[in-house]
Amino acid sequence: MIIIMSSTLLILAKVKVSTRLISAIKYLSVATVFYSAIANSTIVDLPSWQHTALPGSPSLRGSAVIDNSLWVSGSNNTVFVSQDGGKTWLDKSVDSSIKTGFRDIALFDKHTAIVMGVGSGEQSVLYKTIDGGDSWQLLYQNQDKDGFFDSIAFWDNNNGLLMGDPVDGFYVIKKTSDGGKTWRRIEQTNIPTFVEKEAAFAASGNTLIVGEQGKAWLTTGGFSASVYSSIDFGETWQRDTVPLFSKTQTAGGYGLALNAHQQIFVVGGDYEQRPASYPNMATFTDNQWQSVNAGQYGLRSAMSCQGDICLATGKTSSDISFNAGKTWQVLANPQGKKDDKGFYTLASDKMMFLAAGADGKVGIYSFRQK
Fold first, then answer.
1. CA-to-CA distance for 148 and 121, rounded, in angstroms?
2. Of 83, 120, 214, 288, which is most buried with the most CB atoms under 10 A?
3. Where does the DUF6242 domain lie (predicted)?
4. Residues β-bridged to residue 256
């Protein structure tokens, strides 16, 4: 099913148009090509955000979803879990003398997860649960006083990577083959030298991601927006400059994502100039990094894709693409205005997008059949 929408043309194929779809078309501010991302099924309307405010108003920076199991994490050891697709949320925060902010989640199944805490020295930690968050085990703790964890990512239950701030002139990249119990730092000779005024941001749980066949990427910012890439399960890395705004210490790359075709994207901007207009997205195509015109509506800290549908978000607003990230438009509200309900972090699975941000705000944007 293909629906093509523009100011002068509307072609509807194999679908009965509902009044909700007509309303949705009216508020889309720019022309769109909407490719259905669900094979052999029908989408007859566009979704809207389902918002929830979690108690305690935590700043939420980590998110993960598998089927109907939704997890978010953030400040003050916060973890909240929903096992019914976001209808109800339970507080599964980590009770520990170590006070930290959980800025990344690796979710293996609806009961098994690792959360990553950030902070200097021993504040950077990994906790693991195997019972849906009812209990947590301290899995790994940083012992380097100069260390600071930024992100984690796993290919499977055992093999994964951890990224941390530079120590001794090189980013700390560690690898595990036993599910996070032990970690081995990648040799510095296999990592490009840290660039002056370069920085890494533990912003959204997407600073480090992994892909098929041992591929991995991490992004950095500061005055040198870059993407580091590996094709051998993190053993060796190369660095490429990317065309993102990078004129301040708080600018650069904030998040990474793969579309359905395993094409890599990087999003970013400037945390201190979140609503400003500047290059905030790039992708690797034709053997080089190229800027993507996503509207330049300010900082974007996370992106996620399901089929040909991709969302990108930052604190001030969100963007949507219906063709795997080629073209974008700002996500409008039903009144036809830019939706100002942005977020910090974003995850997705089976056509459901889970977002979370400031003040305990959680949003679900779902294309699932009802």
1. 6
2. 83
3. 46-270
4. 266
- The angle subtended at Cα 121 by Cα 143 and Cα 95, nearest 5°, is 95
Q: Return the CATH number of 49-366, one of 2.130.10.10, 2.60.40.10, 3.30.450.20, 3.20.20.10.
A: 2.130.10.10
Q: Which of 111, 142, 112, 110 is CA-nearest to residue 126?
A: 142
- Give residue limits of the domains in the chain: 1-46, 49-366
Cβ atoms of residues 306 and 37 within 8 Å: yes
Write the pLDDT tens digit of every residue in 144-173.
Answer: 999 999 999 999 999 999 999 999 989 999
Would you list the DSSP string of 257-292?
A: EE-TT--EEEEEEEGGGTTS-S--EEEEETTEEEE-
Residue 39 contacts by C-beta under 8 Å, 6 or more apart in sequence?
none
Share of the chain above pLDDT 70, in %: 85
For the question of whether the overall pTM of this predicted structure is more than 0.70, the answer is: yes
Q: In the numeric block, which tokens belong to residue 167?
A: 């120590």
Alpha-carbon gap, residue 152 to 252, rounded angstroms: 19
* One-letter-per-residue 3-state SS of 105-134: EEECCCCCEEEEEECCHHHCEEEEECCCCC
In eight-state DSSP terms, residue 189 is G
State how far the Cα of 156 lies from the Cα of 171, in Å rounded to an integer: 23
C-alpha–C-alpha distance, residues 303 and 311, integer Å: 6
pLDDT of residue 335: 60
Average pLDDT of the chain to the nearest whole number? 88
Check if the beta carbon of residue 307 is closer than 8 Å to that of residue 269: no
- Evaluate the CA torsion angle 42, 44, 49, 55 in order and state its sign: negative
Q: What is the pLDDT of residues 337-370, one digit of tens each?
A: 666 679 999 999 999 999 999 999 999 999 986 6
